Amino acid sequence: MTTNTKVNFNLYDVIRFPLVTEKTTRLSESNQVAFIVSRASTKTQIKQAVELAYDVKVEAVNTLVQKGKVKRFRGRLGQRIDVKKAFVRLAKGQTIDMASGV
């Protein structure tokens, strides 16, 4: 893949880490991968970051913001942080192996 596009951000400021759960590993059957991303990142930034970091072709990016739960911490109410998730659909024949680093 050629990197002719100019990137004005750090790739790992956009992509925090891959989301590896039972549900997201089932998504790999349909050429999709899930990531935890920065709340300020856009879909085009996520697409560019995944293409440059993993050397794959991205077809589509869907995002959602999971609101933080209200929990009790030592008897006081607190709230977990909001998390932005990105579901990336890869082009046919493209894969990202998340288990290779294990």
Q: Beta fraction of the residues?
A: 25-35%
Strand order of the largest sheet: 1-2-6-3
How much is the average pLDDT? 89
- Overall SS class: alpha+beta
Shape: globular
What's the story with the biggest beta sheet? 4 strands, antiparallel
**CATH top level assignment:** Alpha Beta
- Low-confidence spans: pLDDT under 50, at least 5 residues? none
CATH H level, superfamily name: RRM (RNA recognition motif) domain
Element-level helix/strand string? HEHEHEEEE
**How many E-type strands?**
6
CATH architecture: 2-Layer Sandwich
The helix content, as a percent range, equals: 10-25%
Radius of gyration: 15 Å
How far is the N terminus from the C terminus? 26 Å
The CATH topology comes to Alpha-Beta Plaits
- What count of domains describes the coordinates? 1
Count of individual helical segments: 3
Can you give a write-up of this model?
This protein has helices spanning 11-14, 22-27, 43-54; strands at 15-18, 32-37, 58-66, 70-73, 76-79, 83-90. The protein is globular and about 50 Å long. It has a single domain (11-92), classed as 2-Layer Sandwich (Alpha-Beta Plaits), CATH 3.30.70.330. It is of the alpha+beta class. The strands form two sheets. Strands 1-2-6-3 form a four-stranded antiparallel sheet.
Topology, please?
Layout lengths: L10 H4 E4 L3 H6 L4 E6 L5 H12 L3 E9 L3 E4 L2 E4 L3 E8 L12
Q: Summarize this, please?
A:
The protein is an alpha+beta fold. It has helices spanning 11-14, 22-27, 43-54, and strands at 15-18, 32-37, 58-66, 70-73, 76-79, 83-90.
